[in-house]
Amino acid sequence: MAxxxxxxxxxxxxxxxxxxxxxxxxxxxxxxxxTVKANLSRLxxxxxxxxxxxxxxxxxxxMANHQMEDRVGMKSAVWTLEVSRRGGxxxxxxxxxxxxxxxxxxxxxxxxGANYSNDSIAGGDTAKxxxxxxxxxxxxxxxxxxxxxxxMGVIRIQNEALTSEIVLA
Length: 169
Hints:
Elements: H1 11-28, H2 33-53, H3 74-83, H4 96-99, H5 101-112, E1 120-122, E2 128-130, H6 139-152, H7 164-168
Antiparallel strand pairs: 1-2
Helix pairs in contact: 1-3, 1-6
């Protein structure tokens, strides 16, 4: 993300690597384990059947990223993880409802600047969706956010009715 290899003696670089690992774990665990197992089982079944049937190589892409760039919004994910460590009002850390606001302002800021696009696509009868290349709008980032929400949980503190004792106190 910094355009260079990590400096293993740098606290900042080591902390960044730890946050990248956390973001990847959150993204991976955004899916239910049974869904992951079923998809892997189907992949294996399809792969072995088709490789034994057809003479051409399987249509499976190279999974490695050979480019040193942030293609999935990892910088935004790392910032979001750091925000989640702040102290909260009703718990040790801020709640999910507070953390989710960080990617929102990031996406709005991205789209308001030089990356503004007036293009839109129809999204049903009444809603309209707009095209954006914001890093927080991509598929990986959305999975990261979902996994982070599952890990953090959503804690709701409901307003309680006032009892007569509280009113008279």
